[in-house]
Specification:
With 209 residues, this protein is an alpha/beta fold. The chain has one domain: Rossmann fold. 36% of the residues lie in helices and 31% in strands. The chain contains 6 helices and 8 strands. A 6-stranded mixed beta sheet has the order 4-3-2-5-6-7, with helices on both faces. Strands 1-8 form a two-stranded parallel sheet. Helix 5 links the parallel strand 6 and strand 7. Helix 1 crosses helix 2. The longest helix is centred in the middle third of the chain and has 21 residues. The model has no long low-confidence stretch (mean pLDDT 91). The structure holds 1-O-pyrophosphono-5-O-phosphono-alpha-D-ribofuranose and guanine (GUN). 1-O-pyrophosphono-5-O-phosphono-alpha-D-ribofuranose binds next to strand 2, strand 3, strand 5 and helix 4. One of its GO terms (molecular function) is hypoxanthine phosphoribosyltransferase activity. Keywords: Coiled coil, Glycosyltransferase, Transferase. InterPro entries: PRTase-like (IPR029057), PRTase_dom (IPR000836). This is Podospora anserina S mat+ genomic DNA chromosome 4, supercontig 4.
């Protein structure tokens, strides 16, 4: 059976808080692009910790990508299974002038909650790089855009997707590296009290071990 790791809202908050320190000192993003749905909450929390006195909040743009499908299993329970194709459910509006300019010559932090097989992040980086090239050609500007990645959890496993080396070597922040377990995030919980109780029970078990 796949082990489950229960993560509470407070855990998410604290993971963002501690990750903001290296992200600020090593990258200082101009813009975040949150991959929905799981990247939205971490991006919003992180924004508070990236805010510098006297500077405006870092803007958050959203893209919607979906790889995991909810499928009924033999026992008729709904389980999440990895799909084979990344589906775009939402993308940047490149016709908006402000959003176009935001992409060129900027440091862009892509935010998601989990790097599992890396398929989603590979897709996001490749497609965003294409967009940047398109916008750069259109605007006739030559400034370089740098992408960084922040995830709450990176699973230490064989990845299906790959990321550019300049991202993995220096612009990739995972608050926690975990095994190949299924992570249960609080925003997916139907019963948040039960979810928190599961998280507390796992913590108690760990401290007794
Ligand atoms: O590394 P990967 O194997 O690509 O998996 C990671 C992706 O899976 C989840 O998305 P999901 O498709 O479940 O959509 P959701 O965020 O809307 O739940 C998660 O939010 C990541 O985007
Ligand atoms: N909730 C959740 N979504 C995922 N998508 C890919 N891996 C995971 C995981 O471990 N937990």
């Amino acid at each position: 059976m796949v082990e489950k790791l229960y993560v509470t809202y407070n855990d998410v908050h604290k993971l963002c808080q501690e990750s903001a320190i290296p992200i600020l000192s090593e990258f200082k993003p101009d813009l975040m692009i949150a991959i929905g749905g799981g990247g939205y909450v971490p991006a919003r929390i992180l924004r508070s910790f990236l805010k510098q006195p006297g500077s405006p909040n870092i803007p958050i743009q959203a893209i919607g990508l979906s790889l995991y499908e909810q499928l009924p299993n033999a026992a008729d329970q709904v389980v999440e299974q990895v799909g084979h194709k990344v589906t775009r459910t939402q993308w940047l509006d490149l016709t908006a002038l402000g959003s176009m300019k935001n992409l060129v010559g900027k440091r862009i932090l892509i935010v998601d909650e989990v790097d599992d097989t890396r398929t989603t992040l590979e897709y996001a980086v490749k497609e965003l790089q294409k967009d940047v090239e398109e916008v750069r050609a259109k605007l006739g500007v030559d400034e370089k855009t740098e992408f960084g990645i922040f995830v709450l959890h990176n699973k230490d496993k064989q990845k299906r997707g790959t990321l550019p080396e300049d991202v993995t070597n220096g612009r990739y922040w995972a608050a926690r590296t975990v095994g190949d377990e299924w992570i249960c995030y609080p925003w997916e919980a139907i019963d948040i009290d039960e979810h928190d109780a599961n998280a507390a029970a796992a913590l108690a078990k760990k401290s007794q071990a």
